[in-house]
Specification:
alpha/beta, Rossmann fold, eight-stranded mixed β-sheet, 9 helices, 14% strand, globular
């Protein structure tokens, strides 16, 4: 046991397995009281019991993050159990489809969006309301390098892009409140990657380089703790134990101005002056095959 998060109350969503479990255990070992949320009650209880055995404090919240009422209840349960909501880790995600987007169905898309997007927004809004009242708190959204683009999982790319955008927007909204919002893009090997390998989206190389969730968990502890008190609006990236940052999107410089444009004039300018500014699509990783940088003929 350590005391980096001593006396704090933290909610971890989707904490029954994988990354969420590793986050909850690491947070508990640092002295925080943990609300272990998962729709699988048995798995959530097992994680909470493990935290208790390690000398920590944990309670279970079995509600769905995609429910506005359940999201509020899990934040309130943290206050009831530990006296305050000091931290929120928006980790819950529901995505098991791998393949081309045109083969995806409505239920798959809705489920992914409800959990990862609405769940993040619902939990975040309820948490920040309580945090603002106290003038302190830390929200950690679990994003993904995939939000920059990858084949075979376009809905996951889209929902994680929404999580990244929420991080930037909330950080600005809460900048003067004492509440910080950051994100982590973890590169860890979990059960979901077995499905991706089976679908041919990931290769066995990814299995080899993917770090266990426990290797990534200290980054969440850092973002929740006072060690990162100076950071907000940032996205940390961890891949195979390597630490880095993902820059927020930025517009490229507007260098050509006209009062009115035609489509032909836009084409002429792009072909003559912007060809070296088109950006490659997808995040860089040698084990994936991404499209070449966009260029005009």
């Amino acid at each position: 046991m350590s005391d980096l998060l001593a006396g704090r109350g933290v909610v971890v969503t989707g904490a029954g397995r994988g990354l969420g479990r590793a986050f909850a255990l690491a947070i508990g070992r640092e002295g925080a009281g943990v609300v272990v949320n998962d729709v699988d009650t048995d798995e959530a209880r097992a994680v909470a019991a493990e935290i208790d055995r390690d000398g920590g404090r944990a309670v279970v919240s079995a509600g769905s993050v995609a429910s506005w009422a359940d999201a509020e209840a899990m934040i309130d349960s943290c206050i009831d159990a530990f006296g305050a909501i000091d931290g929120l880790v928006n980790n819950a995600v529901a995505y098991t489809y791998y393949g081309p987007p045109w083969d995806e169905g409505e239920e798959q898309i809705r489920t992914a969006t409800d959990v990862a997007v609405l769940g993040t927004l619902f939990c975040g809004v309820h948490a920040m309301r309580r945090m603002r009242e106290r003038g302190r708190g830390s929200i950690v959204n679990i994003s993904s390098r995939a939000h920059m683009g990858t084949r075979g999982m376009s809905t996951y790319v889209a929902v994680k892009g929404a999580v990244a955008s929420a991080t930037y927007g909330w950080a600005l909204e809460l900048a003067d409140s004492g509440v910080r919002v950051n994100a982590l893009a973890p590169g860890a090997y979990t059960r979901a990657h077995d499905l991706a390998v089976a679908a041919g989206i990931y290769t066995d190389t990814h299995r080899a380089i993917g770090a266990p969730p426990e290797v990534v968990a200290p980054a969440v502890v850092y973002l929740l703790s006072d060690l990162s008190a100076h950071l907000t609006g940032q996205t940390l990236a961890m891949l195979s134990g390597k630490l880095g940052l993902i820059a927020p999107p930025r517009p490229l410089e507007h260098t050509v101005e006209r009062e009115r444009w035609t489509a032909q004039e836009i084409a002429e300018v792009l072909d003559s002056e912007f060809t070296d500014q088109f950006q490659p699509v997808g995040f860089e990783a040698s084990e994936y095959q991404f499209p070449a940088p966009v260029t005009r003929a």
